[in-house]
Predict the structure.
Amino acid sequence: MVPYGQPDRGDGVALRSLLFAALGTAGLAACVTLLFLGMRAVMDVGGACADGGPYVSAQSCPNGAPGAMLLGVFGLFGFGAIAMLYGPRVGGIWAAIPLLAWCGLFLSLGWNFLDYGVFNPPPGAGVEAGWLIPGVLFVLMGGVPLAGILVAARSGSLAGSAILASFNLAPGATGRTGRSGRTGRTGRSGRTGPTGTMPQALPHAEVAGSLTGGDAADGLDGVRHLERLAELRKQGLLTDAEYETAKTAVLRDMEDRP
């Protein structure tokens, strides 16, 4: 069993996770589309409809609209659970698919409200406040998270990197290196970019455990820490930059000890 949030590494396991992540993504896209089209069909007949029951409805629902919307609503939960389970195992943008589906859902439904209530209201009708207000709210609910992702992806700033890391779109946040105890030296990293910055918040619990001191429960000393880090990099669980960062932290800890 692969821990949640840790990318699969075995070829067979990775392929299975990729297939399930793709299934969840396709299902979410289909459900968002069903809700979008079902909502438009209902708004075409005035925004409200009903069928069945002891009374005759003044406005029957368009054929297929209720079923499409019900299937879309419940499908979002099912396919969303699949995407949330397997997306982080694949890593990268796959981990953010549920969030992107959230953005797509509310942006599309918000557009329906604005389209029918503001941009293309019924003939002879003005702006419909009852549709304008939810339209604006839905656009904000979908647009603000999406804008956060886009800004973070383009900014390259500390805040932007933290946002990307929180969405599991980056291997770790970037931060400034502090001075180390008595040595006052900054660590080096193979791919860290500008001097004075280096990745932090390594993505796997196993790696984080390797950064603890020699008094940790597993009793590993500094040399065994370094050997373990080298093994993790060889297995592909650490990038070169993460390995250099972790190695620097272990060496610094060893130097600071009496």
